[in-house]
Amino acid sequence: MPKMYICLWSNDKAEDMANFYKSVFKGTKIGKTWYWGPNPMRVKEGSVLTMDITVLGQRIMLLNGFSKMPFNESVSMVVPCKNQREIDAYWKALLRGGGKPVQCGWLIDKFGVRWQVFPVEIEKWQASKNKKKKQAMNEAMWKMVKLDAKKLKEAFDRA
After folding, report:
1. CATH assignment of 77-158, among 3.10.100.10, 3.40.50.720, 3.10.180.10, 1.20.1270.60
2. Mind listing the pLDDT tens digit for each residue in 4-18?
3. How many angstroms separate the CA atoms of 73 and 140, rounded?
4. Which of 13, 37, 54, 65 is placed for a possible disulfide with 29 were both Cys, Cβ 3.0 to 4.6 Å?
């Protein structure tokens, strides 16, 4: 049974995106590439239509749609990290080349894709039945741009 996967409309940047994400995430594989044939959109025949990549085990199809559709905040890629070193490394790498930090562990890469980079423990903290601990952690997070796992844990534990 085929598994569901993500398609990102990359305008005309599929190859650039594939190579960028391969440089950010170790083990990224570039898979099938399909090319435009004759078409009514006046896209050059033989240019890349789609490229499949696998990032952190997730298949993503990058589509060169050749119309300028912007990404928006309603969709983001989520990267749970084992430790602060991973958070720092992904944060720096995803901002490379013109990305923008946002808030609460969110950033926008140079292609306009939104990312959430956070410590994997945040899932446990958010699932806690202790509302005071969860609220304290959230309040600490809301003051951050790049997340600091140690400070989040301290806020959670202190409450």
Report:
1. 3.10.180.10
2. 999 998 888 999 999
3. 22
4. 54
Write phi, then psi, for 8 (nearest 5 degrees): -110, 120
Total-model pTM: 0.90
Percent of the chain with pLDDT over 70: 100
* Confidence at residue 63, expressed as pLDDT on a 0 to 100 scale: 93
- Token digits of residue 20: 């960028």
Three-state SS at 154: helix
Structure tokens at 145: 């741009």
Give the CATH architecture of domain 6-63.
2-Layer Sandwich (3.30)
109-135 pLDDT tens trace: 999 999 999 999 999 999 999 999 999
Q: Which H helix or E strand runs over 70?
A: none
Nearest C-alpha neighbor of 78 from the set 97, 101, 98, 55: 55
